[in-house]
Amino acid sequence: MNKVVRRFRSLPIRSRLALLVAAAVAFAVAAVSVTCWFIVQGKLYAQVDEDLKSSFRTIQADEFDALTKTCPQNPSNTLGGAPRPQTYAQVVRSDGKVCRFSSLMPQVKITSGDEDVAKNPDPEVAKLRNGTDSEGNSVRVMTTAVFVKNGPFQQGVAADYALVIAVPLKGTESTLNELALILLLVSGVGVFGAGAAGLTVARAGLRPVDKLTEAVEHVARTEDLDIRIPVDEDSDDEVARLSRSFNSMTSALASSRELQQQLIADAGHELRTPLTSLRTNIELLTRSEETGRPIPEADRKALLASVKAQMTELAALIGDLQELSRPDTGQHSGRTQIVAWHDTVESALRRARLRGRELTITADVQPWFVRAEPSSLERAVVNILDNAVKFSPEAGTVEVRLVAGVLSVRDHGPGIPADELPHVFDRFWRSPSARALPGSGLGLSIVARTVQQAGGEVTLSHADGGGTVATVRLPGASVPPPEDLPLP
Q1: What contacts 24+ positions apart, CB below 8 Å, involve 475-482?
Q2: Same domain? 154 vs 253
Q3: How far apart are CA 71 and CA 377, in angstroms?
Q4: Is 479 among the domain residues?
Q5: 312 and 344 together in one domain
Q6: How far are the Cα atoms of 19, 25, 78, 186 from residue 194, in angstroms, in the given order?
Q7: Rounded Cα distance, 336 and 231, in Å
Q8: Dihedral (C-alpha) 152, 157, 161, 167: value to the nearest 10 degrees?
Q9: Of 7, 395, 471, 482, which sees the most CB atoms within 10 A?
Q10: DSSP 8-state code for residue 106
Q11: What local confidence, expressed as pLDDT, does residue 153 receive?
């Protein structure tokens, strides 16, 4: 059985569908054919039984006088009557002896049931059965008790006889055999046609799947993600949904590859500037050592300070690239935990005050607990505060508020032009007015990614009176939750 199942599963889908359709149709046709055969058999036997009852009425009217006068004295002889053609008629006594109405017809084989009818007469009972005659022919038999009206017995008294009437079943059996043959032929044609139709339907139904398979094989062979499968927009069946999903998948992969290529190109461009500067400064220092002509001390200190700054910038850029290279699959469940966001903001504020000593940074921080990755969340808050410090004017003010899970950081700098707002969270994007300032253009991209992974949202907008407001909303609660319970 397992071998058959394995062999069936190894067949192509269209072959399996054709076999399943053929099997289903074969089962249905077999059920209908068998039911039809039994119904016709019942009808034919009912007609035969009606003929037996008609023969019984004829014999009862014409032959009982001969029966009552002759059979008791000559139980082994024929009665000399002439029943209907092709009708067996005989009388069986309770002791098993038989009298036939005509010697022209073979004798029907008597059973103990026939003798029981003679021994226990009941005018309401007529026993019907299938039997055979002395020549082996199949017959339909009806046995009923005999009640004589005259003769040596009193009128209406049971005569200790049973009348056995039978008709041949040759015609009925021939009809049933012909019907079985016809049903078998029709069933065979139906099953064969169903298999052919199933194969045709399977081929037509799986044609879109074949196209999808060819498309997948083409992508695997050529890595061409621009291929699309035509889909009927009005269709919503499984194949159409699968085709749409495939098109969406290839579009996402193509977009991801474009973003990857863009990230590599942008990273190469951003890395080229500090590396070029580093190489130039190092070459100057090396040439000074090789030629024996020392660089003035002030210039030497400036070169070393530049090298240090460029290395710091490279380290920050590499860290940002590592952060962005992590899989963007929502929250990292292995690293997330309940974080006191207000403590994270306070820590970031301390770092911001060190970097912007000339600025006034005000803070209104209220308790709020979130589920996030602690280091990523702190880095996102630091990036927002760094931007505020970077773009604030001298002796300016930065206002920080964390109330009910909403962090707002407002500076009083030049603000962001309206046409640049849609791009502020793009990787490596930098405002033309800020390109002279240090930075890689990845800070706000990291903020957006971290906030999204924590289930929140971040926006930048113009502030009333000038400047920019950065707003971060994270789901959480003002009190820490019990152990092992998620935050709302």
Answers
A1: 475/370, 475/405, 476/341, 476/368, 476/369, 476/370, 476/371, 476/405, 477/368, 477/369, 478/366, 478/367, 478/368, 478/369, 478/404, 479/367, 479/369, 480/338, 480/340, 480/369, 481/338, 481/369
A2: no
A3: 117
A4: no
A5: no
A6: 9, 7, 59, 12
A7: 41
A8: 110
A9: 471
A10: P
A11: 36
The pLDDT mean for the chain works out to 76
Q: Which of 112-116, 258-262, 279-283 has the lowest mean pLDDT?
A: 258-262
Query: Does residue 279 sit in the same domain as residue 306?
Result: yes
Query: Tokens 């003769």 map to which residue?
Result: 151
| C-alpha neighbours within 13 Å on the C-beta side of residue 479 | 3
| 484, part of any domain | no
Token match 């100057």: residue?
Answer: 284
Residues in the chain: 488
Q: Is the pLDDT of residue 432 over 60?
A: no
Taking the C-alpha atoms of residue 257 and residue 260, their distance in angstroms, rounded to an integer, is 5
Summarised one tens digit per residue, pLDDT across range 172-221 is 888 889 999 998 898 888 888 877 877 777 777 777 777 777 777 877 78
pTM, 2 dp:
0.45
Question: Residues 301-309: what's their mean pLDDT?
Answer: 80
Give how far Cα 370 sits from Cα of 341, 373, 446, 448, 449, Å: 6, 10, 18, 16, 16
DSSP-derived secondary structure for 239-253 = HHHHHHHHHHHHHHH
Query: Counting Cβ atoms within 10 Å, is residue 204 exposed (0-12), middle (13-18) or buried (19+)?
Result: exposed
- Are 56 and 128 in contact by the 8 Å Cβ rule? The answer is no
